[in-house]
């Protein structure tokens, strides 16, 4: 009996980062979902709980901290029982030079 591929949700406002991670993960046999905002990601998670979430911290609107906080607050929801790990990335595509 074959095991189905794990589903990874990539949440990042940078389309290039989403596409790069999607290609890399799919090449390794994972199923991927992508969301460009925290709000969209939360709606997606309620419909289909991923096995793993890769979450960017620095996003406009609802940032990664807010998304993680809402996920943590929904302990009794189906996605909370299935999604146990949510790695976050603090990288930012914004320049710090003036």
From TrEMBL:
<dbReference type="GO" id="GO:0000160">
    <property type="term" value="P:phosphorelay signal transduction system"/>
</dbReference>
<keyword id="KW-0597">Phosphoprotein</keyword>
<keyword id="KW-0902">Two-component regulatory system</keyword>
<feature type="domain" description="Response regulatory">
    <location>
        <begin position="7"/>
        <end position="98"/>
    </location>
</feature>
<dbReference type="InterPro" id="IPR011006">
    <property type="entry name" value="CheY-like_superfamily"/>
</dbReference>
<dbReference type="GO" id="GO:0003677">
    <property type="term" value="F:DNA binding"/>
</dbReference>
<dbReference type="Pfam" id="PF00072">
    <property type="entry name" value="Response_reg"/>
</dbReference>
<feature type="modified residue" description="4-aspartylphosphate">
    <location>
        <position position="56"/>
    </location>
</feature>
<keyword id="KW-0804">Transcription</keyword>
<keyword id="KW-0805">Transcription regulation</keyword>
<feature type="region of interest" description="Disordered">
    <location>
        <begin position="68"/>
        <end position="98"/>
    </location>
</feature>
<protein>
    <submittedName>
        <fullName>PAS:GGDEF protein</fullName>
    </submittedName>
</protein>
<keyword id="KW-0238">DNA-binding</keyword>
<feature type="compositionally biased region" description="Low complexity">
    <location>
        <begin position="86"/>
        <end position="98"/>
    </location>
</feature>
<dbReference type="InterPro" id="IPR050595">
    <property type="entry name" value="Bact_response_regulator"/>
</dbReference>
<dbReference type="InterPro" id="IPR001789">
    <property type="entry name" value="Sig_transdc_resp-reg_receiver"/>
</dbReference>
